[in-house]
Design goal:
- The chain is an alpha+beta fold and 501 residues long.
- The chain has 13 helices and 10 strands.
- The protein has helices at 3-13, 26-43, 134-140, 143-148, 186-189, 199-220, 226-239, 247-253, 263-266, 276-290, 347-352, 404-415, 484-496; strands at residues 302-308, 314-320, 343-344, 363-366, 370-376, 384-385, 389-393, 419-424, 439-454, 459-466.
- Strands 3, 4, 5, 6, 7, 8, 9 and 10 form an 8-stranded mixed β-sheet that branches. A two-stranded antiparallel ribbon has the order 1-2.
- The longest helix has 22 residues, at 199-220.
């Protein structure tokens, strides 16, 4: 429909445009809709690959004149084009212009279609295309630029100090030992510190460290230390029977540390001059605990069983547990890590700790080494105990041939191998060196001489001399062993076994 037909349609309907109004009349709206509908039916062909044409401002269309309130009829008598209610104008499209018409002339841009071309127009470029991230800018900065601008690569940090070309030379380098004890063991270093423990038990064990510190303070002030030493001695004897011990408590209490624990007693770095028996008890406890032997029971590692005999009587027997990890070998020359005055309730317990390798015999030895330990027991032999000097008889042989024990003693005399000496409570009560209960280790002796008492039985008597430099035999006074705590524990065990106390 051309404009002549449009005018005829308007005239036939008898509609006139409203005066003093910019909005088209109802007839104009109808005609306009018909006109647009016809154009859409005839010429509009949607193409998904085409892009929207430029807006009206890009088409160099003159601006709309301001309204004067006069009739919208133009000078040549034609009605102006009515406004369309279509949404195409809102989208920036000219409803009366086909989408496929030639693009108006405009300044060519990079990537756009040529002027007058019917090809689709390219989208405008990305406005962020020319930007670079801060990370890439830092990477692309040259060393020269970075040196000129030291803050360019570190905008929020102070400038780095220049590297020193020559490392400083040091003298008098001292290696710092971070271990808390110089006598550590694998067990002590691998204790699981995450296990639970009782705070009360920890405080009970830490009490010894407080007593040690008290002795140091009293010594610095020049006061009498007898009461302080008595408290330390009593605590050490009590600690031997703490039944709540565990690796966590021992390590947390620091009783095995060099600076605050038991080594501070027997090493005595503060020059307090602890009594020798206190030093020995502290050292014996340290050795056993550092090896992980925290069982305080006197019969630890010992199995006790009752066996019935053929006559119906019951016999009690003791044997060593095969899987007891803390058992020590007795086939060692010398003290074998024992401490003077160490005590055991039975002979099998001394065998467990490496003191004497026989459950009943009095002489223990090994071929090639001779006798390693002897036990002074009942008065069946012609022995003489003078403390530091002992006349010790071997066992009785037959037909002039000495027994194995006597041979071991003669071999030790020939090789000058010292022997460990233990005394038993089975000695006559007239013996002033006899322990009141059990067995006690009294040091190392040398076999200095021997004599034959009977040729037929090959009975030999050997002279044993105690080596110098050892502490006195602990048979009397405050240093006497066994302690009251050991006697009480042994009495309790015998009561449980149904034995006489």
């Amino acid at each position: 429909m051309d404009r002549a037909a449009f005018k005829a349609a308007v005239a036939s309907r008898g509609a006139t445009p409203r005066e003093n109004s910019q909005a088209p009349s109802r007839a104009g709206k109808v005609a306009s809709s018909l006109f647009i509908k016809e154009e859409e039916d005839d010429e509009y062909e949607p193409a998904l690959h085409l892009t929207p044409l430029p807006s009206i401002e890009d088409e160099n269309i003159p601006p709309k004149p301001a309204s004067t309130g006069a009739s919208p009829v133009t000078a040549n008598g034609q009605l102006p084009k009515p406004k369309s209610t279509s949404t195409k104008k809102a989208r920036g499209l000219n409803p009366v212009t086909p989408l496929t018409r030639p693009i108006a002339a405009h300044a060519p841009t990079s990537g756009s279609a040529p002027i007058g071309s019917t090809q689709p127009r390219a989208l405008p470029g990305n406005i962020y295309a020319g930007l670079t991230s801060a990370k890439k800018r830092r990477r692309s900065t040259s060393p020269a630029t970075a040196a000129a601008r030291p803050h360019a690569t570190r905008p929020h940090a102070p400038p780095k100090k220049p590297l020193k070309s020559v490392k400083p030379q040091y003298s008098d380098i001292e290696v710092v030992n971070t271990r808390t004890t110089s006598r550590s063991s694998e067990w002590y270093e691998t204790i699981d510190m995450h296990k639970k423990y009782s705070r009360t038990d920890l405080v009970s064990l830490e009490a010894i460290t407080g007593l040690i510190e008290k002795c140091r303070r009293e010594s610095e002030r020049g006061r009498n230390l007898d009461n302080a030493f008595a408290a330390v001695r009593h605590k050490l004897h009590q600690m031997e029977f703490f039944d709540f011990l565990s690796g966590v408590i021992v390590k947390k209490s620091k009783v095995l540390d060099d600076r605050s624990g038991l080594p501070r007693i027997f090493d005595d770095p503060d020059n307090i001059n602890y009594p020798w028996d206190i030093k020995l008890d502290a050292e014996a406890l340290f050795i056993r605990w550092m090896q992980g032997d925290l069982d305080t029971h006197l019969l630890r590692g010992i199995e006790t069983s009752n066996k019935k005999r053929a006559n119906g009587k019951t016999a009690m027997g003791h044997s060593l547990q095969k899987d007891y990890a803390a058992r020590r070998s007795c086939n060692v020359v010398g003290d074998n890590g024992l401490v003077n005055g160490q005590w055991w309730p039975m002979q099998i317990c001394a065998m467990r700790d490496g003191a004497h390798g026989e459950i009943e015999a009095g002489i223990h030895g090994q071929h090639g080494k001779g006798a390693l330990s002897v036990l002074l027991s009942s008065g069946a032999y012609d022995d003489k105990d003078e403390g530091d000097r002992i006349l010790y008889c071997g066992t009785s042989g037959s037909e002039g041939k000495p027994t194995t024990g006597t041979k071991y003693m003669k071999e030790s005399e020939r090789l000058r191998i010292p022997v460990r000496v233990l005394r038993s409570s089975a000695l006559p009560q007239s013996n002033g060196y006899r322990p009141s209960r059990g067995l006690r280790y009294d040091g190392v002796y040398d076999i200095v001489d021997s004599e034959i008492l009977d040729v037929d039985t090959a009975m030999h008597r050997f002279t044993l001399q105690r080596q110098e430099g050892q502490t006195p035999i602990r048979c009397s006074g405050e240093e006497n062993r066994p302690t009251p705590f050991e006697i009480a524990a042994y009495t309790k065990i015998r009561h449980l076994l149904g034995l006489k106390s």
